[in-house]
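Q: Hi! First time doing this. I have a protein sequence and I read that you can turn it into a structure. Is that right? Here it is:
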Amino acid sequence: MNDVPERWTQASTYPDMWADPDEDPRESDGATPDGELATLQDFLTNYRLTLRMKCEGLDPEQLARRSVPPSTMSLLGLVRHLAEVERDWRNWVVPEPPAPKLYGPRDTDFEGAVADQAVAAGAFADLEREQAATDAVLAEYADLGVRVGKDGTSIRELWVHMIEEYARHCGHADLLRECVDGRVGQ
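A: Yes, that's right. Below is the predicted 3D structure, encoded as structure tokens:
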């Protein structure tokens, strides 16, 4: 028996896309943001949304399905990991002591991504909360050149690192989703 899912997409305009442009929430009216900060915000928003889109319509078992051994990566693990990433990068900015890890020591975010409705719901709630907290902190810095934290990292560098982290993991999410049910697209 072949367990490999058939490739498919909901898009009809461009068969390699996730959704048709007029139905894709990441599409704008064609105007690009004005300025560097608005551009960075737009890219991060779209990558965050892409991750959520890759998880839509899946049950906890599908979300927790691992890629190829020995990897512990799963869509649910990525959600948990990126909630942790939001917190970690925010810890670079805030002057108070760092917030503790959400899920425990290294790789627990992936290893604890089990097929359970409460775990899945908790992960998405954690991600939403951590994203909102990061957004609130970064909103205080309109000047991207401001240096913060003990290492004097620029706000610009933090934005770019967060975008890079989401972009890399959205690439993983593309492959993970295709392995789960064959759905493809950007």
